[in-house]
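Re: Re: token formats

Sure, here are both.
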Amino acid sequence: MTDLQTLTRKILHDVQSGNAFDPYAEDPPRSLTQAYAIQDALAASLAKPEARGPVAGWKIAANSQQLMTRFKLSEPATGRIFASQRIDGDASLKVADYTEFAFEPEIAAVMKTTLNPQNAPFTRAQVIAAIDRFVPGIELLDMRHTDMPNTHIPDAIAQNISNVGAVVGGPGVRPEDLNADDLQTTVRIDGEVVHDVTGAAPQNPLDAVIWLAGHLASRGLPLEAGQVVFCGTHSPIWYHKGAGRIEVVMSHIGTAALTLG
């Protein structure tokens, strides 16, 4: 068994058991290339039917200039969203399924057609034509007690950047009708407004999808029809303990909601 296989088995056990985040750090620190190789190997196990099922989307992380600077990145980071953890519509979740539940409100793109790597680089027009709509979404995270501000970001990428699913809301708008600059994002927990901000997208959502399609193509991966792309959070990571009702309302594009019980 290779070192990659051994490490992947350890991370898979941690992720599936909800164990506290162990970076399995290397000296010298692992590179982004090494991180994505580990993530790819981890995803091959998680995508099995008895685990989380096939890849149903992608998350983009650290795509504001501030976060890229903090994490010493020249481009954003990405991880996978798996089919059994993607909920289209109102979600009902169990608190007991998470070690340290958190979420992020985001704009998500729902893909209409596949962007294949052999057709890269993609033009703006090609990507617009490939998107069915932009919708509000809630990325689901299990932080597993990760000290994210002090984490070497490739170590987090290797472990799929804490993603444990996504809630895909609606109804959404066509890509050409989205104006993220004046879009208001309101987060309510049990009916109380806890976050209200306008123009908070860390990156133009269309630019985020263009970046992701090109990034995946460089790894020989398609951005597939039906998949969702979560385009970056509109708030800091939002930790939540216990039961509750979480609603994300985005002006012009709709609502995403979940109930924790």
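Second one below.
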Amino acid sequence: MRRLVIIPSLLLFMLACADRNTSEGVAEDFVYVYYKHADQAAALSLSALLAAEKLKDEIELVRTVRNPGEKLEQLPPIEYEMVGKKSQENENQVFFRYRLTVKNGGTTISLRNVVIHTELIDGCWKVINFDEYSD
């Protein structure tokens, strides 16, 4: 039985470090799964450090209404675009700024800004922190 637990974990780790193992790839994948699809479990697989702690806390909070990884049926359409990128001098940390547009029936109901902080950890790019703010 132990193998069954290790194999999916190893597969998930390999997928997280696959073709999208760039700072930009992991940031975009994070925005896609977390903001567009409200999938905290998938976002957690892309995260480490403070971002992972935030997501674990959030997963616990929503556990009473849905299981981790369970898809929500009704989500408002969310569009996003990267509007900024800044690398640290050592280039092992990269910050991204995204603009989220939440719509309802074609009408914009919310504009949000998201900052994603990525870092290269043991050969894999991970989101280590994220925050959002409005204009």
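Residues 1-11 have pLDDT under 50 and may be disordered. The domain at 2-133 is CATH 3.10.450.50 (Nuclear Transport Factor 2; Chain: A,).
- S.
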